[in-house]
Structure formats: structure tokens, C-alpha cells
């Protein structure tokens, strides 16, 4: 099986698990969020071994906040009778997934100038553009279909950029640590931290806007 096939199969399985847990909500989704945060922290701790206590504390916050944000979005989001926490959670997922998929295929197909060669040599400006375009289309379409707040139509693009910045942040950590992936247990993907690094800023930003009453 090719690397792309492995990556696609594992990706589909992860998406399916996330969607089922999101649909069920309650304890199933809480358990998934807690498990994900725990695995992320274990992988983070391995990356920053020997870097000092501050990095361990930062990692704890980094892994905990998105889990709490996702739970808040799923269970607490209300939009005056239209949309729901589940709908908004799917929007968060679509921004992250579409950015990752769009960037991957646009980067491979177009190539061109590198986005941040000193941090992640494989990422390109074309990949970033492809990710933003894919996220805007996918998440924007979902926002319309689910009658979510109009702000989410234009927020998809900047949040897609934030997702890529989250990816670059984790890439910078790995480069400093001299490791390629945060783990090896997800064929074609590396570790869970490698897959959820883009979700971290999108989840936290969405929950922050919701808490501030801007959604």
C-alpha cells in the first residue's frame, strides 16, 4: 500500500471516529477529547525532553485548551434558534480538515516557493493558498447549509491561516528537537500531535469568539 493510500485510509478512519463522537456528544465526545489531549501531551513531553519545566507547563496548556474549547463548542453553542453546537463543531472540523487536505494536494501539484523553509521545507505558498481556498469553500458551504452566523463565512479563510500557523508551530518544535514526527503509530501521519496541530488554534479561536459573544 502506498504512503498516500495509508494516509488516506487512516485519515478517513480518524474523521469517522470524530464525527460519530461529535454526533453523540456528551460523555462519548468528552472521552474522545480527553483521550486526544492526553496522547498529545505524551507526544509533546517526548519532543521537549530536557527543555525544562516551562515547556512541560506550556504543553499542558497547549493540549488542554483545545479539548476544553471543543467541549464548550459542542455542548454550549446556541444561535437564537438556528444552528447548534454540533453544527459549529463540524464547521471547526471542516476548516481544519479542508486546510490540511487542500494544502497537501495543492502543494504537491503546484509546488513553487516555500512557505517557511527553515521550519518546514515541504510547505509551500501554493499549499497555503490551496488550504485557504478549500477551507473557505467547505466551511463556508456548511455555514450556509446549517444556518450558522454569517461571520463564519468570512472567518473560514483567516482561521485556515491560523490552522497552518499551528502546523508550523509544531514543525518548529520538531525541528528544534531533531525529530521528524511526534510519533509513529499513525501510518502516513506520524503521531496524533502531527494531525491535530492545526485544530488547536481553530478550536481555541472559535470558542473564544463564542465566549465573547461575537458569534
Automatic annotation (TrEMBL):
<keyword id="KW-0548">Nucleotidyltransferase</keyword>
<dbReference type="GO" id="GO:0004605">
    <property type="term" value="F:phosphatidate cytidylyltransferase activity"/>
</dbReference>
<keyword id="KW-0808">Transferase</keyword>
<comment type="similarity">
    <text>Belongs to the CDS family.</text>
</comment>
<keyword id="KW-1208">Phospholipid metabolism</keyword>
<feature type="transmembrane region" description="Helical">
    <location>
        <begin position="88"/>
        <end position="105"/>
    </location>
</feature>
<dbReference type="GO" id="GO:0005886">
    <property type="term" value="C:plasma membrane"/>
</dbReference>
<keyword id="KW-0472">Membrane</keyword>
<comment type="pathway">
    <text>Phospholipid metabolism; CDP-diacylglycerol biosynthesis; CDP-diacylglycerol from sn-glycerol 3-phosphate: step 3/3.</text>
</comment>
<keyword id="KW-1003">Cell membrane</keyword>
<dbReference type="GO" id="GO:0016024">
    <property type="term" value="P:CDP-diacylglycerol biosynthetic process"/>
</dbReference>
<keyword id="KW-0443">Lipid metabolism</keyword>
<dbReference type="InterPro" id="IPR000374">
    <property type="entry name" value="PC_trans"/>
</dbReference>
<keyword id="KW-0594">Phospholipid biosynthesis</keyword>
<comment type="pathway">
    <text>Lipid metabolism.</text>
</comment>
<keyword id="KW-0444">Lipid biosynthesis</keyword>
<dbReference type="Pfam" id="PF01148">
    <property type="entry name" value="CTP_transf_1"/>
</dbReference>
<protein>
    <recommendedName>
        <fullName>Phosphatidate cytidylyltransferase</fullName>
        <ecNumber>2.7.7.41</ecNumber>
    </recommendedName>
</protein>
<feature type="transmembrane region" description="Helical">
    <location>
        <begin position="12"/>
        <end position="41"/>
    </location>
</feature>
<keyword id="KW-0812">Transmembrane</keyword>
<feature type="transmembrane region" description="Helical">
    <location>
        <begin position="53"/>
        <end position="73"/>
    </location>
</feature>
<feature type="transmembrane region" description="Helical">
    <location>
        <begin position="125"/>
        <end position="145"/>
    </location>
</feature>
<keyword id="KW-1133">Transmembrane helix</keyword>
Amino acid at each position: 500500500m502506498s504512503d498516500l493510500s495509508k494516509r488516506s485510509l487512516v485519515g478517513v478512519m480518524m474523521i469517522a471516529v470524530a464525527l460519530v463522537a461529535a454526533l453523540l456528544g456528551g460523555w462519548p465526545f468528552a472521552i474522545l477529547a480527553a483521550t486526544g489531549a492526553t496522547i498529545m501531551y505524551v507526544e509533546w513531553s517526548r519532543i521537549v525532553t530536557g527543555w525544562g519545566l516551562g515547556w512541560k507547563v506550556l504543553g499542558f496548556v497547549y493540549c488542554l485548551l483545545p479539548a476544553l474549547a471543543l467541549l464548550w463548542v459542542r455542548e454550549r453553542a446556541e444561535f437564537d434558534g438556528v444552528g447548534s453546537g454540533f453544527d459549529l463543531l463540524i464547521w471547526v472540523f471542516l476548516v481544519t480538515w479542508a486546510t490540511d487536505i487542500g494544502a497537501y494536494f495543492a502543494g504537491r501539484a503546484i509546488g513553487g516557493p516555500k512557505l517557511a523553509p527553515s521550519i518546514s521545507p515541504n510547505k509551500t505558498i501554493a499549499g497555503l493558498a490551496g488550504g485557504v481556498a478549500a477551507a473557505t469553500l467547505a466551511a463556508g458551504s456548511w455555514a450556509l447549509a446549517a444556518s450558522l452566523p454569517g461571520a463564519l463565512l468570512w472567518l473560514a479563510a483567516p482561521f485556515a491561516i491560523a490552522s497552518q500557523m499551528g502546523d508550523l508551530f509544531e514543525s518548529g518544535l520538531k525541528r528544534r528537537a531533531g525529530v521528524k514526527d511526534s510519533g509513529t503509530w499513525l501510518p502516513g501521519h506520524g503521531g496524533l500531535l502531527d494531525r491535530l496541530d492545526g485544530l488547536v488554534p481553530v478550536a481555541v479561536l472559535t470558542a473564544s469568539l463564542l465566549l465573547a459573544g461575537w458569534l
